[in-house]
Amino acid sequence: IASKSDELTKLPDDIFGFFGVNPFSIALVEDSGNFKMNGILQCKEGLQRGATHFFGRSLVGCYAAALAGVPSVLEHHTPVRAGLEPVASDLFRQRSFRGLIVISHGLKDFYLKQFPQLKGRIYVLPDAADPPVLGESTFALAAIPRTHTKVGYSGHLYPGKGAEIMLQLAARLPHVSFHVLGGYEDDVSSWQSKAAGLPNIVFYGFRPPRDVSAFLSAIDIAIAPYLRRVHIPKGKREVSAWMSPLKLFEYMAHGL
Fold first, then answer.
1. DSSP state, 119?
2. How would you label 19-51 residue by residue, b for 16+ Cβ within 10 Å and e otherwise?
3. Is the pLDDT of residue 93 over 50?
4. How far apart are alpha carbons 110 and 183 in whole angstroms?
5. How far apart are the first and last CA of the chain?
6. What torsion, rounded to 10 degrees, do the Cα atoms 187, 190, 194, 198 define?
7. What 8-state DSSP symbol labels residue 31?
8. How many Cβ atoms are within 10 Å of 228's Cβ, its own excluded?
9. Mean pLDDT, the chain, whole residue set
């Protein structure tokens, strides 16, 4: 169950082919424009479809499920959003709440300090990656003359993700090609402008998730040059203390 956010409505009709996965049942709920109401609508849709358990990233959705007496599990990658602490505190006291999943021990310690009632019901499951999925993509790296080693980065280009480092490396290592996959259009345009004059770095922008394995399989070295402070979309939240970078696991899954 998911709300029809702007990102989802922009996807092609073949959403499963876009991600390179086998089809499964999915229900999209109309986006109300209010994330709290979206969570409630997702819970309602799930109950109507006969759900017996709830698992998700929506604090409000899991809270609604718990209040309905349906076992629920919440997964969070950052602290509770400001203003929702009372909702979280009450959720964590519900008998039907089965536990909180976080992706780092630092985040677990933070939650236990803020919500001691979570003791015994909080679990650390660091990010992981599936084995490479090949044959689902026709993606190919751009050929850059007079370079013999291909270095790649896959991910967003938010502040702190390390695009600054990649530009510095490209300037110092003209015999190495740098390939950057991902990023919102505005971020990509900004970094392309800053990289003007560096012929050995290419920004591919956002590509379907099915292209990631093809990209990673084509490079020699993968980098994750995160800075000391890392922000999530639009720079609203700083997350360096809680990170479990998915890209590192994807790089390792590809033997890089």
1. T
2. ebeeeeeeeebebeeebbebbbbbbbbbeeeeb
3. yes
4. 29
5. 34
6. 70
7. P
8. 7
9. 85
pTM higher than the cut 0.70: yes
| Amino acid present at 110 | F
Token digits for 14? 């073949």
How many degrees, rounded to 5, is the angle at CA 151 between CA 161 and CA 256?
90
Confidence of residue 201 (pLDDT cuts 50, 70, 90): very high
Q: Give me the pLDDT at residue 235, please.
A: 47
Strand partners, 178: 151, 201
DSSP symbol at 231: B
Coil vs helix vs strand at 247: helix
The angle that helices 185-194 and 163-172 make with each other, rounded to 10 degrees, is: 30
* Alpha helical stretches, state H, 81-157: 85-91, 105-114
Phi-psi region of 141 (alpha: psi -120 to 50; beta: other; left: phi over 0): beta
The answer to whether 232 and 239 are in contact (CB under 8 A) is yes
Cα separation of 33 and 35, whole Å? Answer: 7
Lookup: tokens for 241: 């203390």
More confident residue, 106 or 221: 221
Give the pair of three-digit tokens for residue 183.
């990023």
